[in-house]
């Protein structure tokens, strides 16, 4: 795995963990990662992540 691929994989996993911890709430996930909602939404789209899968019913 290249360094670039490893970094992208790590970023994806960080976002997924933040979404899990925040019940799929993108605003709180962004805050917990000290980034903006725009960046989280952009990365979610790029990585094909479905935030609603992390909501606990």
Mean pLDDT: 95
- Quaternary state of the chains: single chain
Structure class: mainly alpha
Q: What portion of the residues fall into strands of 2 or more residues?
A: under 5%
Largest sheet: none
Rg: 11 Å
Shape: globular
Order of helices and strands: HHH
Roughly what percent helix? 55-70%
Number of strands: 0
End-to-end distance, in Å?
37 Å
Count of DSSP-assigned helices:
3
- What are the low-pLDDT stretches, counting only 5+ consecutive residues below 50? none
Task: Give short descriptive properties of this protein.
57 residues, mainly alpha, 65% helix, globular
Question: Mind explaining what this structure looks like?
Answer:
By secondary structure, the protein is mainly alpha-helical. About 65% of the residues lie in helices and about 0% in strands. It has 3 helices and no strands. The longest helix has 19 residues.
Briefly say what this structure is.
With 57 residues, this protein is mainly α. It contains three helices and no strands.
Helices, strands, pairings?
Blueprint: H1 3-21, H2 26-32, H3 37-47
Helix pairs in contact: 1-2, 2-3
């Amino acid at each position: 795995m290249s360094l670039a691929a490893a970094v992208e994989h790590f970023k994806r996993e960080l976002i997924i963990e933040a979404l899990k911890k925040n019940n799929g709430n993108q605003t709180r996930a962004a805050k917990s990662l000290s980034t903006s909602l725009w960046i989280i939404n952009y990365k979610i789209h790029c990585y094909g992540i479905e935030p609603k899968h992390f909501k606990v019913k």
